[in-house]
Amino acid sequence: MAIEISPVNPETKKEPDSSLVTNLSDKLDLSSLIPLYYQLKNKILEKMENGEWGEGSLIPSESALQKIYGISRATVRHTLDLLSNEGFLEKKRGKGTFAKKPRIEEKLPALKSFTEEMQGRDASKRVLVAEYNEPSPKIRGILNMAPGEQVFHLKRLMIVDGSPLGTLDSYIPGRYKFSLREDYSKSLYEIIERKGIQMGEAEQTIEASRSTKEEILLLGMKASFPTLVIHRVVKSITGDPVEYVKGVYHGDRYRYNLKLTRYR
């Protein structure tokens, strides 16, 4: 799967000044067949994408947007509600509406690496640990390791859109002989497959948790925050364990999407 720095505190933002409002005065096409709410939605998203409204920025109020675009208050409110439901805006009672980045979504059950999940996004990985060591009894059992066999431990920081998203701790049996000189900022699954190992399936659990002191530090936060924790065991097409990975994601920036079918 599905990855610096302290986020902007939206409560410190002030109402956009008159120069910003002037820049927003590109009018909607009131004669177009395209619904006004949809036109306004695209205008707001455009301002967010080009950086005029960065993450944490306070956007103009409903009444201000109504005056700027010459549309009804109900249309403005409907548009802001849509963008809030889609994760692009956050409403704070008594403070206003703030721009935010939508959560990164992983669609299950495809078995993908973090690099593959983040195709098309500004994403990278920073290698924190790459070493061989003695596995814990839990990891030795999960990976079906022989007595005395060492485990290759790879710890990486996932960075998306310039901010840390979470950490990945991968454990691979020493018998696969992974090099310490490999560039593990690239796709681990591609590296595994280059070694001739064909991955077949994985079992994964997902749980909610709170950040540890180490995670607060690595993700550039100032206080504890909610996390999504995944535990995944990847097996080859012959059923042999290839990797155990523990991923910790910032809970406010990541979510899973599953499509469920009722068998009849």
As for the CATH topology of the largest domain, it is Chorismate lyase
Q: What portion of residues is helical?
A: 10-25%
Q: What topology, given as strand order, has the largest sheet?
A: 4-5-6-9-8-7
Assess the beta-strand content as a share of residues.
25-35%
Shape: elongated
Brief synopsis:
This protein has 264 residues and is α+β, with helices and mostly antiparallel strands. Helix content is 24%, strand content 31%.
Structural overview:
By secondary structure, the chain is α+β, with helices and mostly antiparallel strands. The chain has 2 domains: 10-99, Orthogonal Bundle (Arc Repressor Mutant, subunit A), CATH 1.10.10.10; 104-258, 3-Layer(aba) Sandwich (Chorismate lyase). It is 24% helix and 31% strand. The protein has 8 helices and 10 strands. The protein has a 6-stranded antiparallel sheet. It has a two-stranded antiparallel sheet with strand order 1-2. A hairpin with a 2-residue loop joins strand 5 and strand 6.
Provide the fold topology:
Elements: H1 18-23, H2 36-49, H3 62-69, H4 73-85, E1 89-92, E2 96-99, E3 104-108, H5 114-117, E4 123-133, H6 137-142, E5 151-160, E6 163-173, H7 188-194, E7 199-210, H8 213-218, E8 226-236, E9 241-250, E10 254-258
Parallel strand pairs: 3-10
Antiparallel strand pairs: 1-2, 4-5, 5-6, 6-9, 7-8, 8-9
Helix pairs in contact: 2-4, 3-4
